[in-house]
Amino acid sequence: MSMLRNPLLPGFYPDPSICRVGDDFFMVTSSFSYFPGVPVFHSRDLVHWEQIGHCLHREEQLPLDWQYISGGIYAPTIRFHDGLFYMVTTNVSHGGNFYVTAKDPAGPWSDPVYIKNAPGIDPTIFWDDDGAAYMTGTTDWSEHAPGVWIGRLDLEQGCVAGERVLAWKGALVNAWAPEAPHIYKKDGWYYLMIAEGGTEEYHAVTIARSRNVMGPYTGYAGNPILTHRHLGLNYPICNVGHGDLVQLKDGSWYMVMLATRLMGGYHKNMGRETFIVPVDWSGEWPVVSPGTGRVEWEYPAPELPACPFVQPDQNDFSALCWNTLGTPAKGTVAIDGGVLTLRSTQEWLVPDALPRMPAPNGCPGFYGRRQQHMDFTAEVTVCVPERGEAGLMLLQNGFNALWVSAARTEDGVCVRAVRSEKRGVFYEENPCEPAREVTVLWEGRSEDETLRLGIAAQGQAHRLLVGGRTVAQTHGGFLGSETAGGFVGAYVGCCVSGEGAEAAFTDFRYTGR
Ligand code: 6LW
Q1: pLDDT tens-digit profile of 169-208?
Q2: Measured distance CA(152)–CA(450) in Å, rounded
Q3: Is 15 tagged catalytic?
Q4: Structural domain boundaries of the chain?
Q5: With 80 as the cut, is the pLDDT of residue 505 above it?
Q6: Alpha-carbon gap, residue 82 to 357, rounded angstroms
């Protein structure tokens, strides 16, 4: 029997949104300050998901200057209406809420239309039967009590026209972070499904309904319809929330949502991933994961024709799974005949340099892909650059990273294995610049100017490799998002640092299980 296996999209793929068009399903997820932004996936059986493109694939669509990694693009929604795909999201760093459209979800996607009179995050679009469009999103916390607003959306003018109404404040009294709204119409009711409790261990999916699209919405007495907040911090699937529903042709329903696999204790190295559960919505309210009420590792797949596909080689630097950090300035990333040439505009592998995206644009010299497995090995061949330093990095954010890199010195090539972590609290006591502590775990010399550098992990036992040999080991718990802070998950990839530094990389290999 074919099975739906969780996580459906392993690795850092948070805030999933899904839609069905005929026999085809499409899904998008958040991407923060990685470029291209908002990956698009396609499936016909809900089991096999192939990445077919990105919604934000041009520099003009994705301004990210001067951002930290957890800035940029927050939760997207994908919908199809009248022959067009719409992806609506927030660039929290530039311009706020906007949408892009495409005839083909693989792209190209349009330029962004920034939406006026639409504060907050997590926008979504809903079309009523009469063709009228509505938008919901979170309130701007400085403007209202936390809640979810709804308003009439004028797509042509790019604005929420008229009044925005506070639709719902969430199920709990003083609910924390009511967000991620989506509207569905069923049996004459408008259902408003949201997330609340914050995106960590108190996360939950709750629902309300109304006879009128603009509300007032009344919460379901059986809320929350899904959470793992009561299962404790040892339960292997955590953070469950932020869902979107899809109805199959046969009338059955499924929910995709974010959740996190804990790794070696309460550590969230891979960040928030995409999971799926069946939903029984034969009654008035949805019953999520019937029979157990929690997210399971697998479920029988729906009865749809199996649709496997041949996965393109993910080790190829031009595969869709690769991203830069920040929108790359022209010429900073070049791929030719299997060789990646990466240029850096700044020195960032040193204690006081934090990899924000440099202005006017560019990237700090990182090109990577998601860590998708608890146990993995990644290796790459690096030509030691004339200037600066280059290597392989496992990166959670600008503070918390592990790398093995090489640089030329007067005495030949110097290779080092380094652990970098944040000291100080980013979001609260010290909103400006927390310190980054850089620890050199190992340092050695090499006769070679071309080196095979690697990082391997078995759970939290991380090893740094030079020429296939382990040179240093460390516990990787500091790479968890619960420790590092922020909304992203680990990436592994090529890095180069130093003003004008340029390095060539070949033969990247990632294997995981
Ligand atoms: C997203 C919000 C959330 O906008 O985290 O889990 C924020 N939910 O809905 C960033 O992913």
Answers
A1: 999 998 999 999 999 999 999 999 999 999 999 999 999 9
A2: 59
A3: yes
A4: 3-300, 323-512
A5: yes
A6: 37
